[in-house]
Amino acid sequence: RVLCTRTGKSNFDVARFVRFEETPNIFSTIGAISQKQKARALALVASHLLQGDHPFYILSMIGFQLRKLTNLNELQKLHEKLFLVDLAAKTGKIDPALSVLTLVAGL
Asked: Most buried among 34, 35, 72, 86, using CB within 10 Å?
């Protein structure tokens, strides 16, 4: 919106220039997270949010996949991060969309 206001362009005009390289797919997003590709993971999470995917869906899929991919020590730490971010979002302490981005940035 800021770009539209400053340039006088419509949302459609801006969308033609600001595109993500790949269509968001929750599994490619999880893959980027598990491969520690933060920039790609954050871009994919942002595209999921812009596409209208609910933040709690994204959080639940991240949690599901992390439980499958990690060993016991890592799992405990990651599960604690996931729990704290999820709790903050569900109690209104942080915006749900921001909670997903915060979690991914902190992994």
From this structure: 86
